[in-house]
Amino acid sequence: MPLRVVTGSITDLDVDAVVNAANSTLLGGGGVDGAIHRAAGPGLLTECRGLGGCLPGQAKLTGGYDLKARSVIHTVGPVWRGGNRGEDAVLASCYREAMRIARARGLRSIAFPAISTGVYGFPKTRAARIAARTIRDELKAGEEMEVLLCAFSAPDAAILQAALDDLNEEN
Ligand code: AR6
Q1: Cα–Cα dist 165/149, whole Å
Q2: pLDDT at 74
Q3: Is the CB of 118 under 6 A from ligand 1?
Q4: Highest taxon of the source (predicted)?
């Protein structure tokens, strides 16, 4: 299966790129962002300082430093403001832009955290549906790539798996 759910910390994954759910400064933070910077070591922050930040829905690539992953694709999800402020489109853009960078670089494997579903407050089921659909559409458009949806807990994994199952039933 080119698209599947795994459970655990994204920092442990041996993939060409892990995606970071960053903020627009790209200078680190809590949650998965903090975990990635801790595991990657100080070289990552040094490289991020040269990137000039990142707008919501866009993505930028760096090295992976001390991570098992060869690279990090930093993206900035939307802050949830009730659902009528373009949040869905910005979240879809995060997944799409990260997939496009990965494809442009010839990467063969990429792992996503559940972008915006922590501190940024995006409802998890709605976010999982957007993630599954956007990645599926990008996989159709491009060459073979292994895509992992990384859940940080078993309940979160169940939400992501349900979104994948719903999508497969539609086809
Ligand atoms: N591996 C995989 N998933 C994780 C990990 C991990 N090690 N740690 C947390 N998660 P969040 P956001 C899950 O808050 O909502 C940062 O401070 C977590 O359970 O990390 O996009 C940034 O600097 C949740 O499901 O990201 C920004 O300021 C998901 O990752 C802000 O938080 C996303 O939660 C971004 O907020």
Answers
A1: 13
A2: 98
A3: yes
A4: Bacteria
The CA distance from 98 to 110, in Å, is 9
| Structure-token match 């199952």, residue found | 165
Q: Is the CB of 69 under 6 A from ligand 1?
A: no
| Whole-angstrom distance, CA of residue 114 vs CA of residue 31 | 11
Distance 121 CA to ligand 1 centre (A): 10
Domain CATH number, residue 7: 3.40.220.10
Structural domain boundaries, residue 117: 3-170
Model ipTM value: 0.99
Active site residue 33: yes
Q: Give the number of the atom of ligand 1 that is nearest the alpha carbon of residue 21.
A: 21
Question: What total of structural domains would you count in the chain?
Answer: 1
- Assign 110 to helix, strand or coil: strand
Per-residue model confidence (pLDDT) at position 67: 98
All residues at 6 or more sequence positions from 105 whose CB lies less than 8 Å from its CB, including other chains:
61, 71
Instruction: Give whole-number Cα distances, 13 to 24, 27, 39, 72, 110, in Å.
Output: 24, 22, 11, 12, 9
% of the chain at pLDDT higher than 90: 94
Residue environment code for 89-104, b if the CB has 16+ CB neighbours within 10 A, otherwise e: ebbbbbbbbbbebbbe
